[in-house]
Amino acid sequence: MQQKGAIGIFDSGYGGLTILKEIVNILPQYNYIYLGDNARTPYGSRSFETVYHYTWEAIQWFFNQGCSLVILACNTASAKALRTIQQKNLPLLNDPFKRVLGVIRPTAEVIDNFTHSKHIGILGTTGTVQSNSYILEIEKFFPNIKVFQQACPLWVPLIENNEHNSKGADFFVKKYIHQLLEQNANIDTFLLACTHYPLLIEKIKEYTPADIKIVTQGNIVAESLKDYLKRHPEIESLCIKQGKINFYTTDNAEQFNKQAIIFWGNNIQSQQVNISTL
Ligand code: DGL
């Protein structure tokens, strides 16, 4: 008999909370475990090797908590680690009830719904942009869409340090948006391809021409998870349904509780864990 568990939601820090919030909105019946690797955030500027190593450590931790299904609610981890984990690590476990999903594929699958001009702009971390994951995934579904990318390396640090509403943030919001717009005049859709960026949305709107649509991923990922659970009853039946959420961080729990409010909207009581397998 397979062990039942919560659905695992992982991010390098707080950003995945923006995804979890939307998931809980439409799938409140399940139990969730959220883990932020705050001790090692940001992932966006790290090498493939490091992001893969950190992400695989986190996934093993989730599996040890009894999770069958883990969502990488982080574009950087999805871009740099997911493929290797799905192709190399999971088959070695020899356990068909352990699954890991990301946020890039579900977004790529529906991006065509948002664009008329078929020119879209991706705003993401350096890691996500360098991986070209969005270009490759979107090409598979919609070869007619032209994808332009802009790395925004300062946005996650601004958000993680609660400086995203400060006057100083404007400079870097404006700078990256201009750099993206300069690449092509026909872009009609911006995809916020980092789970932290919804926190910056008001400032992003301020510097984005009114005719450009701004797309966030929370709802897209939540709908895709709902569909996945419907299509995979063997996994769905292993997800506990008591509507509970537990929050974990690899750094100080008090600090997490304080900062997480801006992403989650309500008080959070987290616990600190050590996920290192070294
Ligand atoms: N929230 C993560 C993402 O979606 C990245 C944050 C980081 O750089 O750690 O890409």
What does this molecule look like?
Helices cover 46% and strands 16% of the residues. The model has no long low-confidence stretch (mean pLDDT 96). By secondary structure, the protein is of the alpha/beta class. It is globular and about 55 Å long. The protein folds into 2 domains: 151 residues, Rossmann fold (3-Layer(aba) Sandwich); 109 residues, Rossmann fold (3-Layer(aba) Sandwich), CATH 3.40.50.1860. It binds D-glutamic acid (DGL). The site of D-glutamic acid has 17 residues, from helix 3.
Give the topology.
Blueprint: E1 7-11, H1 16-26, E2 32-36, H2 48-64, E3 69-72, H3 75-80, H4 82-93, E4 99-101, H5 104-110, E5 119-124, H6 126-131, H7 133-141, E6 146-151, H8 155-160, H9 167-183, E7 189-192, H10 201-206, E8 213-215, H11 218-231, H12 233-236, E9 245-249, H13 253-264, E10 270-272
Parallel strand pairs: 1-2, 1-3, 2-9, 3-4, 5-6, 5-7, 7-8, 9-10
Helix pairs in contact: 1-11, 5-7
D-glutamic acid binds at residues 11-13, 15, 41-44, 74-76, 125, 128, 156, 194-196.
* Structural class by secondary-structure content: alpha/beta
Largest sheet: 6 strands, parallel
Question: N-to-C terminal Cα separation, in Å?
Answer: 31 Å
What is the residue-averaged pLDDT? 96
Low-confidence stretches: none
What share of the residues does DSSP label as strand, in percent? Answer: 15-25%
